[in-house]
Backbone:
């Protein structure tokens, strides 16, 4: 069981060049994959192709052996700007939309809706509130609840933490961790993946629509995405002055490594 | 100087600002941080004269925004949080020329070129704004305000959608403004942006809860309210692990200096 992209290219109608060129990857069940790269490198386009929201101009995508159009129930997708994706009168109707649309019986719809709302950590008191009246961070959580309500095997999140405050970002990271722990395959597009590096299995780096790195996160692959950080920079400086620290992405991981090295 | 003095403001029954005071001096870079709904965007609109306070006052170069809101709007350039709110023309270069033309500026092409250069988007000059990504629109909105050459610049979460290149362009633009003697206030969730400010103001529920040079503000702020710079997290982390650290770190240099001794 896996998601496969073979030699996928995508060109927007009327655009000069392709937004994605010959991308091939395979994502196994239960993996947490972060797709990163600079603005315009093709992250959103690639994950929309993988999820079957747009059809590749060339190449093919298969989900558990099926074409994405035939695997709708296996896929959940939360778009980057939640305010453009919320239409219903109440949070409850919004989250129930997917399961209802699949023709599930009402008590099953209620059960799935409640579970999805609990999973993202929104208070059930907010179920009767209009989604558009919520804060940006809560809208994002509602959009994710919508994407997971029908219990898809594959969840796609486009820039889930962009524009959120500290609490919102922390929540999203925790949520991704728990969805992964529950066995969901999660594919995140992010231009700023630092918060996810300690928990992700793989980092796919795009540059100009091409996959230029695919593997466990490393300083080198981050470099290809144009990403560096104070923690990475300091680890390098410490190594060059004889303190033997490991490669670390979060300051907390580096602190552990410094303690070890100083022993 | 922009002086916010004991400002309170409510939307109907929702209080958004409660007795807020702060200032932005010419040549100074002030970062404003705080969780969502703490009143940051409302404060930005008060500084720009777009909103008048219910109580207290906001003075721009000594004149109250109440007495002359249009003067404040001219002196203070405001970059809104939602870049879609700001675009007025289809083509990027036309959008940037719109403001300067409106105030009868003589050197419109120079202003447009300078603003494009400062934000690193010269290659987008002829693009249709509708076809741009969120991050690119954010840079266009900033360039549009820079083209007005305001005495003060207030930017509301300008780097939230930007990659590292875009962020660098914005920080370079901030430095250029600062060196030209203009005051800059940047509302941000990004601690690495705030770490480079002269002063950090932290808001929570409509009030200022910490204010001072970055190291001082980050040391005073209640835990979990805002993100901290990576090197601050590291110095805190080492302390928690029983390693003596002399002071709170902000930069890689701070950390390397103490650790490589
Ligand atoms: N609707 C569209 N029409 C034309 N070009 C587009 C459209 N959406 C994106 N593009 C272009 O495709 C490329 C990849 O965009 P995108 O996948 O959104 O990148 P990312 O998500 O990495 O920022 C960019 O050059 C962008 O300008
Ligand atoms: N136009 C508005 N009408 C009613 N309430 C508003 C409006 N704008 C903001 N608020 C409320 O004012 C408070 C402060 O909002 P805002 O200044 O946008 O905070 P921040 O920018 O820190 O997220 C919040 O409770 C918000 O819901
Ligand atoms: Mg994108
Ligand atoms: Mg705001």
Residues:
């Amino acid at each position: 069981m896996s998601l496969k992209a073979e030699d996928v290219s995508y060109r927007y109608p009327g655009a000069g060049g392709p937004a994605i060129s010959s991308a091939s990857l395979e994502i196994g069940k239960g993996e947490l994959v972060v797709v990163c790269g600079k603005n315009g490198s093709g992250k959103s386009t690639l994950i929309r192709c993988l999820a079957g929201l747009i059809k590749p101009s060339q190449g093919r995508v298969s989900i558990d052996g099926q074409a994405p159009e035939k695997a709708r129930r296996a896929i959940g997708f939360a778009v980057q700007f939640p305010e453009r994706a919320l239409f219903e009168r109440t949070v409850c109707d919004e989250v129930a939309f997917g399961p209802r649309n699949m023709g599930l019986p009402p008590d099953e719809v209620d059960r799935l809706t409640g579970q999805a709302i609990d999973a993202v950590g929104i208070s059930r008191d907010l179920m009767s509130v209009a989604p558009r009246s919520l804060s940006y961070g809560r809208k994002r959580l509602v959009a994710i609840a919508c994407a997971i309500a029908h219990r898809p095997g594959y969840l796609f999140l486009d820039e889930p933490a962009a524009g959120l405050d500290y609490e919102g970002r922390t929540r999203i990271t925790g949520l991704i961790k728990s969805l992964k722990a529950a066995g969901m395959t999660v594919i995140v597009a992010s231009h700023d993946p630092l918060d996810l590096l300690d928990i992700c299995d793989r980092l796919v780096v795009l540059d100009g629509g091409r996959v230029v790195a695919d593997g466990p996160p490393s300083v080198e692959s981050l470099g290809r995405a144009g990403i560096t950080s104070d923690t990475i920079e300091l680890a390098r400086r410490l190594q060059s002055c004889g303190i033997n620290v490991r490669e670390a992405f979060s300051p907390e991981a580096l602190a552990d490594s410094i303690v070890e090295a100083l022993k | 100087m922009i002086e916010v003095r004991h400002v309170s403001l409510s939307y109907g029954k929702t209080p958004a600002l409660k007795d807020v005071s702060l200032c932005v001096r010419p040549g100074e870079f002030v970062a404003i941080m705080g969780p969502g709904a703490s009143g940051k965007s409302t404060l930005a609109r008060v500084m720009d004269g777009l909103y008048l306070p219910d109580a207290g006052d906001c003075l721009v170069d000594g004149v109250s925004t109440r007495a002359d809101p249009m003067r404040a709007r001219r002196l203070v350039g405001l970059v809104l949080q939602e870049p879609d709110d700001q675009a007025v023309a289809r083509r990027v270069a036309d959008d940037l020329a719109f403001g300067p033309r409106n105030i009868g500026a003589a050197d419109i092409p120079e202003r447009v070129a300078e603003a494009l250069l400062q934000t690193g988007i010269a290659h987008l000059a002829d693009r249709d704004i509708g076809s741009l990504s969120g991050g690119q629109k954010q840079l266009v909105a900033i360039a549009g305000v820079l083209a007005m050459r305001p005495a003060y610049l207030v930017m509301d979460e300008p780097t939230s959608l930007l990659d590292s290149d875009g962020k660098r362009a914005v920080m370079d633009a901030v430095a250029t403004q600062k060196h030209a003697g203009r005051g800059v206030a940047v509302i941000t969730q990004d601690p690495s942006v705030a770490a480079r400010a002269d002063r950090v103001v932290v808001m929570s529920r409509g009030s200022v809860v910490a204010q001072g040079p970055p190291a001082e503000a980050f040391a005073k702020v209640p835990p979990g309210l805002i993100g901290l710079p990576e090197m601050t997290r590291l110095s805190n982390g080492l302390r928690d692990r029983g390693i003596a650290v002399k002071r709170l770190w902000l930069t890689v240099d701070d950390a390397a200096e103490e650790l490589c001794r």
Notes: The longest strand of chain B covers residues 14-24.
